[in-house]
């Protein structure tokens, strides 16, 4: 195995990582606010419409109702558009920084980690084999010293 990497050495900069970390929750929360605002606007319309029908001669409540509905829809759309555009920007900046899609990038990182772990495991296995061999030789030499230096081979008759 060589020291070469599967991935290009160019990674995201610190400012891009910080932008990703800050814009991801901001985009998600803006999308959440867009949904909450839309649901609130629709509930407000559902509650206020019967009152408007009952009190139809009164124009001020109708104007307030329409103004609230328009404001709610516009706010919901603005939050949604802002959230989607920030998430899109984060994804595009990630693509520029890594040169690949996020899932492809993660897959390559996993492959690289697997290769490194394999090499490390092989090195540790070789090291353990060497240590075992050294320990065996040391035990053999101590056994020969303790046995009086005979060191001859033992034969058995059956």
Describe the structure.
The chain is mostly helical and 158 residues long. The chain folds into 2 domains: 86 residues; 40 residues. Helix content is 80%, strand content 0%. Pfam families: Oleosin (PF01277). It is found in: Lipid droplet; Membrane.
Helicity range: over 70%
Radius of gyration: 36 Å
Distance between the termini: 52 Å
Order of helices and strands: HHH
Low-confidence stretches: none
Transmembrane segments: 17-38, 45-67, 73-91
Region (Disordered): 132-158
Family: Belongs to the oleosin family.
Biased composition (Basic and acidic residues): 132-143
Primary descriptors:
single chain; 158 residues; mainly alpha; 80% helix; Oleosin; transmembrane helix
């Amino acid at each position: 195995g060589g020291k070469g990497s599967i991935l290009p050495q160019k990674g995201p900069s610190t400012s891009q990582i910080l932008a990703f970390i800050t814009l991801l929750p901001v985009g998600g929360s803006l999308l959440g606010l867009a949904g909450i605002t839309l649901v609130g606007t629709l509930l407000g319309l559902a509650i206020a419409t019967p009152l408007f029908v009952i009190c139809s001669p009164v124009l001020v409540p109708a104007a307030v109702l329409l103004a609230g509905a328009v404001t709610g829809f516009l706010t919901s759309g603005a939050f949604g558009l802002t959230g989607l555009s920030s998430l899109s920007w984060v994804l595009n900046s990630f693509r520029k920084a890594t040169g690949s899609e996020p899932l492809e990038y993660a897959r390559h990182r996993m492959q690289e980690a697997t290769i490194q772990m394999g090499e490390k495991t092989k090195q540790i296995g070789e090291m353990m084999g060497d240590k075992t061999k050294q320990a065996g030789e040391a035990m053999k030499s101590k056994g020969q010293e303790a046995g009086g230096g005979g060191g001859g081979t033992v034969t058995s008759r059956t």
